[in-house]
Amino acid sequence: MPPSPPVTNGADVARLRQDLLFSALRGIEGSSSLTFAIFEELATSIVEGRLPPGHEVNSMDLARQFNTSRTPVREALLLLEREGLVIVPPRRRPFVSPVALSQVREIYEIRASLYALVSELVVQRATDEEISSLWRWQKVLENDAATGDVDGYFWHNVGFRDAEAALSRNGELQRRLSSLGLQMHRFRHLSLSLPGRLLNSVADHERLVRAYADRDVALAAAVSKSLVLRGLRAIEASGRF
User: Fold this and answer.
1) d(CA 233, CA 114)
2) Is residue 61 part of a domain?
3) 238 vs 48, 110, 158, 202, 241, CA distance in Å?
4) Three-state SS at 107
5) What's the average model confidence in pLDDT over 2-13?
6) Residue 87: beta bridge partners?
7) Which among 96, 115, 131 is the end of a domain?
8) Domain with 42 in it
9) To bridge 88 with a disulfide, which of 40, 80, 94, 162 should be the other Cys (CB 3.0-4.6 Å)?
């Protein structure tokens, strides 16, 4: 079931972010709601760039912040480590994992090819009504871009892409995309935060949805792949690595 197009307000973004993080997290079943709350707080701060690579995570401060023992904090940190967002070394304080440009390139190259396939399948399998729902996502993205809301645009963009993947009606393809994990979110947010990226991205998404509406398989796949690789080129040109 694809995510529904949202309304545009802060509460909507918070709910969407929570739902997307929960769905992206493998093996959360059985974890406490407190563990997920700590995970969500840290994952959001890392993905949105407020906790940079190398930043040390103080478990005792987190336990005090959430009024809990260190056990849920440790569980949340282990989930974050599994997602590649933190490193938990023995007898040392955990810290936000470093990022290498080679890793960014490899993940983006995989994602570009997978989303080209997603777009081919959306053209072939999505109904007209389902494609209309992507236009509603597009309007939300346009509002975010117009106001310069990087965080809102990012989470709505994740929702848009998850909706596309669901419309491919290929469960294995969705699982492969999900396996790229929250590291991919981290890189995508970085790319979208760079100067000029929101306007470029929203224009590319408009071209993509138009290709869906026109049932143009080749164009949709080409735009989708180009959209992903443009994000990579922006990161490469930023000089951040």
Assistant:
1) 18
2) yes
3) 17, 21, 22, 20, 8
4) helix
5) 62
6) 95
7) 96
8) 10-96
9) 94
